[in-house]
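Hello Y.,

Per our agreement to keep a running log of every chain we model this quarter, I'm adding this entry. I've kept the format consistent with earlier entries: sequence first, then predicted structure.
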Amino acid sequence: MFRGVIFYFKLAMLLACFQILITNELFQF
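Predicted structure for the entry above:
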């Protein structure tokens, strides 16, 4: 179970990083 929590935490961090990158790309205009 602990390993699953770490996996979901890493997945959430990746999603957050992608969201920040996409937002930066959209608001560069």
